[in-house]
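Hey, weird one. I pasted the Phage virion morphogenesis (Putative tail completion) protein sequence into the form twice and got a warning about non-standard characters only the second time. First submission, copied straight from the form history:
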Amino acid sequence: MSVSLRTDFSDIERLQARIGRLANPDRRVLGEQLGSLVESQTRRRLSEDQESPDGVPWATWTPDYAKSRHGGQSLLQGEGDLSDSITFDVQNDQVEVGSNLIYARIHQEGGEAGMAPGPAGIPARPYLGFSNDNLAEIQAVADRWLDRHLEQA
């Protein structure tokens, strides 16, 4: 009586190629998808939600400032339009989302307003960051990207 083992390695090169594609996926597409999503989430926070990423409603306008606004403008939308300035940039494995407007930081962090005499504090109205719902959306996009990549490998 004898025992024999037969192994077929004819498909090993194809399998090695698939494993190689998994080792070095093109993450730029994922970065673009995530950047676009976070940009959209941030714009929605500015124009609709009007609350910080952790759900704290923003401070309302002062009565004097409210008199200068036009109907339908949100707290950080209107002339200058912070919402329209939100963009993203993908570099290597990082995505940056933000604004290049000079007043963007003071609205995010709060602080003193320019050279106005007397107390001219601007309350923080954080618009950058992630809520739990934002993180769930981001995770879902990343999971779909990975699933598609695994199917193609």
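That's the output from the first submission. The warning seems to come from a hidden character in my clipboard, not from the data itself. The chain has one domain: 26-152.
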